Amino acid sequence: MQTFLETAIKAAIDGGKAILKIYATDFEVISKDDASPLTQADKNANDVINQYLVETKIPIISEENKQLDYAERKNWSRCWIVDPLDGTKEFVKRNGEFTVNIALVENGNPILGVIYVPVSKELYYTSADTKKAMKVTLLSEEEDSIDQILKDSVMINPSEISEDKNSVVKIVGSRSHLNDETIKFISEIEKDKKIEIVSKGSSLKFCLVAEGSAHIYPRYAPTMEWDTAAGQAICQAVGVRVIHSETNEPLTYNKENLLNPYFLVKK
User: Fold this and answer.
1) Which residues are bridge partners to 196 per DSSP?
2) Contacts with 143 (C-beta within 8 Å, 6 or more apart), sequence order
3) What's the whole-model pTM score?
4) N or C, which terminus of the chain has less Cβ within 10 Å?
5) 4-58 pLDDT, tens per residue?
6) Cα 46–89–157 angle (5° rounding)?
7) CA distance 81 to 200
8) CB–CB of 97/205 below 8 Å?
9) What domains can you pick out in the chain, each with its CATH number?
10) Coil, strand or helix at 25
11) How many CB atoms lie within 10 A of CB 49?
12) DSSP state, 166?
């Protein structure tokens, strides 16, 4: 597992380098069939990451790979789930809030996760034993060795919601883009607590909860497995649950339909 972790970290960092090369240019944006944006950075990062992960002999599900039929995938005990550029809209806006997501899934459960933020050089990842999550800010993508990265990393932990009625519950979302389901969810909490909305792009929403910068992330909008697998692995490593909004069961992966149900991220 340590080898898989180190491979995923190297793949994420080098994928990030490929993204930044395009980020620095006057890049073209095209629309995919579902109207979501796609840039050369998505493709280039995907190529770099695949080069690393194919060496592990574990099959790969990536947003930018051709999706295989479930008949071929259903018997996989392990697979990588990758989003080479999560937050392409953030990339196009040039606000820096986009990530590289890599997760190792075992029997439907994401056990290892790496999230890398190319602009800020922040790296989040699960430990090899999957029992804790770490964070480090790279000094240099070129100079930091994997040993140095692991040495410099610090453990992250979530925050508890205080029982005090005057305490503030920090909820991940956007004041200007809250749909009816999210507003309803927040209004229930507002009956007893003060609310603060914390906004962030891409899979960084998971990291906010995992590191204690927010308490809850309600997601009542469509996401795909590659949007959430790495974030779920990191959250689970620190005791934060990523659960189906109706069944309260953890999200599962390599499903026949790679679309996620609505979910909640909370301790």
Assistant:
1) 170
2) none
3) 0.95
4) N
5) 999 999 999 999 999 999 999 999 888 887 767 788 999 999 999 999 999 999 9
6) 80
7) 22
8) no
9) 2-156 (3.30.540.10), 168-266 (3.40.190.80)
10) coil
11) 28
12) T
